[in-house]
From TrEMBL:
Function: Zinc phosphodiesterase, which displays some tRNA 3'-processing endonuclease activity. Probably involved in tRNA maturation, by removing a 3'-trailer from precursor tRNA.
One Pfam family from the record: Anti-Pycsar_Apyc1
UniProt EC number: 3.1.26.11
Keywords in alphabetical order: Endonuclease, Hydrolase, Metal-binding, Nuclease, tRNA processing, Zinc
Reactions listed under catalytic activity: Endonucleolytic cleavage of RNA, removing extra 3' nucleotides from tRNA precursor, generating 3' termini of tRNAs. A 3'-hydroxy group is left at the tRNA terminus and a 5'-phosphoryl group is left at the trailer molecule
Subunit structure comment from the entry: Homodimer.
Limits of the Metallo-beta-lactamase domain: 19-201
InterPro entries reported for this sequence: Metallo-B-lactamas, RibonucZ/Hydroxyglut_hydro, RNase_Z/BN
Ribosomal protein keyword on record: no
Residues forming the catalytic site: 65
CDD domains: RNaseZ_ZiPD-like_MBL-fold (cd07717)
Name of the molecule in the record: Ribonuclease Z
Length: 307
C-alpha cells in the first residue's frame, strides 16, 4: 500500500487554506517528500507526520514554490533532529538551484552537520526496494529537467495461509522460504513446492505524481493504467489560454489525460487561489467521474482492492 499525504496544494503562491507544493508518500517504513515549498516543515509538524525517517526528497523541478522550503527544513533536521544523511533527487538544473540555496544561504562557507547528497537523476529507475520501485519520467513545463515520479509495487504471488495450514507447514523460516520461491522439506519427509501454497500472480498497485506540466500527450505512456494519478489543475477550461501561457493545465485537460491513460483514480492539486475547489472538481468529474480535489492535510491510501 502507498499512502499520500498532501502538505501543500496551492499553485505559485500560498492562500489562507492552501500551502505551497509538497506531498509525502509512505510505503511501509519508507517516506518520500515530493517537493518542498515554503512552509513545508510546519505543514509536516501540523499534519502529525513529524520528521522521523524523513531522509529523502524527490524534486519535480527547480521553481521556488517547489524548493524554497528546503532551506528551513534542512536547517531544522541537521541541527535538531540528529540527522545523519539526507538525499535530494532532481534534475541537474534543479539541483544547481538547490545547491545555491543551501550553500549560499543556509550553510555559507561551512559544511552542514549531516551528509547532504544531491542526487542528479534522469528519466528511468530512481529507487528500488524488494517490493517497489520509483521511476522518473520527463514532464514539459517552463525550464529544463522537469520530472514526474511513478511508484510501483512489484507483482507478487500471495501466500495462501489456509492452504499452508492444511498441509501442516509450521510458522517461521520455512514459510518465508516458500514465499521466496524455494521448495522445502518437512520433518516428516514431505516436499512442499511454492506452487502448493502460492496463489496466482497479482499486479502491484501504482501511483504517479506529475508536478507542474503544460502537456499531457507525452505523459500517457508513463502514466498508463495507474491506480492513482496526482496531477495539477491550476486553471479551469475558460482560462485555458492563460494556462498555456504560464505552463499549466486546466482541470479538463487533467481529466482527459487520466481517461486516455485508463487510470482508476484522479487527484487534482496545485489550484490557483482564484478558484474554489468545487469548480475544479465539477469540471474534472464531467469527464472522469472518479476525480478528487486535494486539500492540505488530506490523506489518500492507494491499496489493492479486496475481493
Amino acid at each position: 500500500m502507498f499512502e499520500i499525504i498532501f502538505l501543500g496544494t496551492s499553485a505559485a503562491a500560498p492562500s489562507i487554506r492552501r500551502g505551497l507544493s509538497a506531498q509525502m508518500v509512505k510505503h511501509d517504513e519508507y517516506r518520500f517528500l515530493i517537493d518542498c515549498g515554503e512552509g513545508t516543515q510546519r505543514q509536516i509538524l501540523q499534519s502529525g507526520l513529524g520528521f522521523k525517517r524523513l531522509t529523502r526528497v524527490l524534486l519535480t523541478h527547480g521553481h521556488l514554490d517547489h524548493i524554497l522550503g528546503l532551506g528551513g527544513l534542512l536547517s531544522t533536521l541537521t541541527r535538531w533532529e540528529a540527522l545523519d544523511e539526507f538525499e535530494i533527487y532532481g534534475g541537474r538544473h534543479t539541483l544547481d538551484r538547490v545547491h545555491n540555496l543551501l550553500y549560499s544561504v543556509v550553510w555559507p562557507g561551512r559544511k552542514p552537520d549531516a551528509k547532504v547528497h544531491l542526487r542528479e537523476i534522469k528519466p528511468g529507475l530512481v529507487f528500488e526496494e524488494k517490493d517497489f520501485t520509483i521511476t522518473a519520467f520527463s514532464v514539459t513545463h517552463r525550464g529544463p529537467d522537469c520530472l514526474g515520479y511513478r511508484f510501483d509495487e512489484k507483482s507478487h504471488r500471495p501466500f495462501l495461509a489456509e492452504k499452508a495450514d492444511e498441509l501442516g507447514i509450521p510458522f517461521g523460516p520455512v514459510r518465508r522460504d516458500l514465499i521466496n520461491g524455494e521448495s522445502i522439506t518437512l520433518a516428516d519427509g514431505r516436499r512442499i513446492d511454492p506452487e502448493d501454497v502460492l496463489g496466482p500472480v497479482k499486479k502491484g498497485i501504482s501511483l504517479a505524481i506529475t508536478g507542474d506540466t503544460n502537456r499531457t500527450d507525452n505523459l500517457i505512456e508513463a502514466c498508463q493504467d495507474l491506480d492513482t494519478l496526482v496531477i495539477e489543475a491550476t486553471y479551469t477550461h475558460e482560462d485555458a489560454e492563460m494556462a498555456g501561457k504560464f505552463g499549466h493545465l486546466t482541470a479538463r485537460q487533467a481529466a482527459e489525460m487520466a481517461k486516455q491513460a485508463k487510470g482508476k483514480q484522479l487527484i487534482l492539486t496545485q489550484l490557483s487561489p482564484r478558484y474554489r475547489g468545487k469548480e475544479i472538481l465539477s469540471e474534472a468529474r464531467a469527464i472522469f467521474p472518479n476525480s478528487y480535489v486535494a486539500r492540505d492535510f488530506d490523506t489518500y491510501q492507494v491499496k489493492r482492492e479486496e475481493i
